[in-house]
Amino acid sequence: MKNAHLSKFYKLTVTERLELLYERGILNQDNFAALRTGSYRLDAATADRLTENVIGVFSMPMGLGLNFQINQRDYLIPMVVEEPSIIAAVSAAASRIGRSGGFTSIADTPLLLGQVQVLDLPDPHVARAELLRRKGEIVDLANEQHPNMVARGGGASDIQVFLRGSTAEHGELLVVHLIVDSRDAMGANLVNTMCEAVAPLIEEISGGRVFLRILSNFTDHALVRARAVIAVDQLKSETFSGEQVRDGIIVAHEFALMDVYRATTHNKGVMNGIDAVAIATGNDWRAIEAAAHAYAARSGRYSPLTVWSKNDNGDLVGELELPLKVGIVGGQVESNALVRIALDILGVDSAAELAQVMAAVGLAQNFAALRALSTEGIQQGHMRLHARSVAVAAGASGERFNDVVDSLVASGNIKVWKARHILESMTDPAAPAAAATAATRILHEVPDLGRTAGFGKIILFGEHSVVYGYHAIAAPIALSIRAQVTRQESGTELVIPGLVTSGNAHSAESAESAESADSDLPVRIAALIIERLGISASGMRIEVFPSLPRASGLGASAALAVAIIRGMANCFNIRLTDNEVNALAFECEQIVHGTPSGIDNTVATFGRPILFRKANGARSANFSAVTVPHPIPVIIGLTGVRSLTARTVSLVRTAWAKSPSRYDGIFEQIDGLALAGVGALERGDIAELGDLMNINHGLLNALQVSSPELETLVAIARRSGALGAKLTGGGGGGAMIAIAEPDRTVAVAGAMQLAGYTTHLTEIRAATEPPATDSTV
């Protein structure tokens, strides 16, 4: 008996895995040689004989599901699937279930139904009675078509006759079901041949006209059932008890019972495992899917295929029942060498045994998904496995493959462009990996930061002019600030890594003792929020976790205010709408900037691209969502020079006061660029967007808010292929942004890095739910 437990199998190379299977006797010499040399692969010439209009051969990976004990027997289960988490999850689930005794699985004798449709009957009820009386003749005629099948104990065994109701023009519909045992073959062609053969006899007996004659893929005469009892101590995780996991799986099952949307995804998880085995063994997975979903809806309501409950001992009990007609012999098996190898590895002796194995895999897959969903969540377990697929797509191979996967997982950004950047940094001598790691942080799309965080932002168009009531476009970035507030007996502690704070945040006067301006502002912001929320009598500890650089023009002060507001509201159970959070954050911005436009706090609060305009006073503004149909990569370059927005705003205001008409003319031009930018974003026209950015930067230069470092970064970006580059935020230092074609984005960032600047890569993308348009701050 083979051992289904292959320790650390996933850590071996493909060659090492094959050698281990050969040494264990799981692969015979021929199969080992075929897998090692690749001679099993289907070539185009052979494929051309199997289907029509062949232009190539499509490949998918085949792996092994491990640890399965089914009916007291060990199985290694070949699975063909492109999603790595499926094989990993099912193997882990089988191991956990195996420690509680494994699976039991029972299959009915697998029967197929052929259907013969009869119309235009003179007397439907007489026809039905006569067909049943002469069913022996019909069965014998069907079996004459396949004497060898009859000799093996199979063939047609019975008929059923149904009256289905009146048709529109052809009277009562009568259907003859021909019941056939195809033994270990899938049997579709066999049943179709039999239906064709008996059609004239059925017409003669019934006096009607036969129309359709074909098999049914609803194989409810070939049911299979799998069951597993899992001890509660085998269910626990690092953070959840066994009882919690058990009850969570049962609740998840109840959700599927009550909701068709959840039931569909629930059953898709079951079929993730079954389909993968079906493809590996050359079976018709489309027919299997159709039958499974029809069976799930047999009551008239679509329901889950599995049932999860607890027994009297408190153990978790999982049960699966579905129709599963499969085969282990026939043309599909003989024509594909890899199918034959898969069946050799699996070692089943009959189609019924294969069905039992597949049902156990489906139950294991469902268990794995429900356990993940009810504990740490499905995505956490998928991350590393998904990173492997992404690394392959980016071209990683050999010794670098695992390094790329590790870096992807560490970044939390499992994207092909990220993997290519990592790979490039490993292979490009002009960009050593260590230097790239130190200089660059690649950002993923804006995450769901929850209720205790504020977003950073970039301004695409409209810096400074927005203060005077003109339009601006801003977008959130994945750099953020998060705050966690916890209660304590008395006093307030404000803890920000890398920033010294002092004094009691309950009182704005305490800020006078702060050691620097940087520590002064957070204390004053916290004091204002405490006062406005009416929690001055409460003690608290405020811990701030920033990933957003200060004084960079990326909205750090607004993100800090939003994070602290939400942290306090969360701690003290204060219900705040987003508009209320935004309004209070605006007051905090007044502490920092004096006369802010309100754009920073709005993006920090709502976390989505917006078209923004002040209206009717400093505390009022209108903003609306900007549609972004496809993510647009953006390079952020940091000058390393502090950007004091209040200072540059003050300088521009002084210049405007001396020559308002001249500066209003510049602001109006910037306003036109912002409005044109909305159209470019909504069309995904990055070339137009780049042109508008370049013009906007020139106008910001006319306002004298750029700096030598910003000009250097803008020039580097454009020389290395950026379509557009400009400063973002207040200017005078801080940050700039650039956009390029996707295949040039990493090169633009790399050129900035080589010049000694820190860069970040992010994306402009539409939020899942847009903000309410024309909202008032």
UniProtKB/TrEMBL annotation:
Return the PROSITE patterns for the record. Answer: HMG_COA_REDUCTASE_1, HMG_COA_REDUCTASE_3, HMG_COA_REDUCTASE_4
The record's section on Pfam families has: GHMP_kinases_C (PF08544), GHMP_kinases_N (PF00288), HMG-CoA_red (PF00368)
User: One biological-process term from Gene Ontology?
Assistant: coenzyme A metabolic process
Q: Which residues form the GHMP kinase C-terminal domain?
A: 680-752
UniProt cross-references to InterPro entries, sorted A to Z: GHMP_kinase_C_dom, GHMP_kinase_C_sf, GHMP_kinase_N_dom, HMG_CoA_Rdtase, HMG_CoA_Rdtase_bac-typ, HMG_CoA_Rdtase_cat_sf, HMG_CoA_Rdtase_CS, HMG_CoA_Rdtase_NAD(P)-bd_sf
The cross-references to Gene3D superfamilies, in alphabetical order and at most eight, read: 1.10.8.660, 3-hydroxy-3-methylglutaryl-coenzyme A Reductase, Chain A, domain 2 (3.90.770.10), 3.30.230.10, GHMP kinase, C-terminal domain (3.30.70.890)
Top-level enzyme category: oxidoreductase
Pathway membership of this protein? Isoprenoid biosynthesis; isopentenyl diphosphate biosynthesis via mevalonate pathway; isopentenyl diphosphate from (R)-mevalonate: step 1/3; Metabolic intermediate metabolism; (R)-mevalonate degradation; (S)-3-hydroxy-3-methylglutaryl-CoA from (R)-mevalonate: step 1/1
What is this enzyme's catalytic activity, as reactions? (R)-mevalonate + 2 NAD(+) + CoA = (3S)-3-hydroxy-3-methylglutaryl-CoA + 2 NADH + 2 H(+)
Extract the signal peptide range: none
- Give the family per the record: Belongs to the HMG-CoA reductase family.
Q: What name goes with this protein?
A: 3-hydroxy-3-methylglutaryl coenzyme A reductase
User: What lineage is this protein's organism placed in?
Assistant: Bacteria, Bacillati, Actinomycetota, Actinomycetes, Micrococcales
